[in-house]
Specification:
This protein is mostly helical and 377 residues long. It has one domain. It is built from 17 helices and two strands. Strands 1-2 form a two-stranded antiparallel sheet. A hairpin with a 2-residue loop joins strand 1 and strand 2. Helix 1 packs parallel to helix 14, helix 7 packs antiparallel against helix 11 and helix 10 packs antiparallel against helix 11. It is globular, with a radius of gyration of 21 Å.
């Protein structure tokens, strides 16, 4: 087998494994919203945090590649930003705004009462203030959009020598925000729904991308350190979650202070390992076709899944002889809806990205990267 063929096979394995992680993340969300277990909320928390780490990693490695291209070509900031935002808009806006318009028109899950926060991607601020109303699951998409709005300029304009310090500062902001909320005596809402509370997960993925950009020595060092540290922090978080009686600070459980921090480090390690072909059962699980397919359609599944109970309640009146448990029916409807929107709506729109190519032939690169840009897009 030639070197090019081997590299292509490796890249294919790597991307299937990342899709597998997305599939696991959406399963965690399903268990939270449709599960019947006392601990199911923790599964959803982990699923959303894993999505944040993946977003930070994938977006930052695109930006780092383009930063090298800009450095080699001697410019191109505005073009790079324009291409980035145009491609992100094609990926995110059509389905999101299509569903928001439908939900507001029919007032699904009280969406019409928060139509402007949904339209402006500030809905997470409504939830963070304690006003629990509307299609709550869309808060995480607001956090990601706010991240996309600011992060590209920070990465592209920040000098390489201070870039890791900038990412570290953003990472620390997450735990400090939650700690400040504890001392201020708030509820857990701003510690979970606020964009500041999610920065450690987003920054952990971004730091992983920087480590990869710097080369194998830095990358391997990060993987070596994050593995034991991630497991230790996850153990601390798990103990805080299951302790009876709960360990409280004021009226809020300690797990809300350490949860995102633990998942940021642990999932950064998990994503880092999944970017390379993995032997054994873990790699085989991530490469399962059905799990990878679920990860491929996960955006549509996530956007639609909390509207599935409304549709199922209506369907039960039309099909009274169907006795499928509601949780199973909602999972089925979510996956079917995600598959439909992917093949007949999202994928055709994604094909328009071919008219918005990134620059991929720099005159010089400060640090080579082993990940093809088209894989990151």
């Amino acid at each position: 087998m030639s070197n090019c063929a081997a590299a292509g096979e490796q890249d294919g394995n790597r991307m299937r494994q990342l899709d597998g992680l997305r599939g696991l993340a959406i399963i965690g969300v399903f268990m939270n919203h449709f599960g019947q277990f006392s601990w199911s909320v923790s599964c959803g928390w982990m699923g959303v945090s894993l999505f944040f780490v993946l977003s930070g990693f994938l977006i930052t490695r695109i930006l780092l590649m383009q930063k090298s291209v800009m450095s080699g070509a001697g410019g191109g900031l505005w073009r790079t930003l324009g291409i980035f935002y145009a491609r992100r808009s094609l990926r995110i806006f059509p389905l999101y705004y299509g569903i928001v318009v439908i939900a507001c028109y029919w007032n699904l899950n009280q969406a019409s009462s928060v139509k402007w926060p949904l339209a402006t991607y500030t809905y997470n601020m409504v939830l963070a203030s304690g006003n629990i109303i509307g299609p709550g699951h869309l808060w995480s998409l607001c956090v990601e959009e706010q991240f996309y709005l600011v992060w590209p300029a920070l990465i592209l304009l920040c000098p390489l020598r201070i870039l890791p310090w900038m990412i570290a500062t953003v990472f620390i902001t997450g735990p400090l925000w939650r700690l400040g909320c504890f001392f201020a005596g708030t509820s857990r809402m701003p510690m979970y729904f606020s964009s500041f509370a999610c920065l450690d997960c987003l920054a952990a993925g971004s730091f992983l991308a920087w480590c990869e950009f710097k080369g194998p020595t830095v990358w391997n060092r990060f993987i070596t350190i994050s593995r034991p540290l991630g497991w230790i922090l996850m153990l601390v978080w798990a103990i805080a979650c299951i302790k009876a009686p709960p360990l409280l600070w004021g009226k809020v459980g300690i797990e809300w202070l350490v949860g995102n921090l633990a998942m940021a480090v642990f999932f950064a390690y998990a994503v880092g390992k999944a970017t390379q072909p993995l032997p054994g059962d873990y790699g085989a699980i991530l490469r399962m076709r059905w799990l990878g397919y679920l990860g491929t359609i996960s955006y549509g599944v996530y956007v639609l899944h909390m509207f599935a109970p409304v549709l199922w309640n209506q369907a039960r009146h039309w099909l009274p002889w169907v006795t499928i448990p509601s949780a199973y029916a909602c999972v089925f409807l979510s996956i079917a809806g995600g598959a439909f929107t992917w093949h007949f709506f999202e994928k055709p729109i994604q094909s328009l990205k071919r008219f918005l190519p990134y620059t991929t032939t720099p005159k010089s690169l400060d640090t080579p990267t082993s990940i093809p840009l088209k894989q990151a897009a």
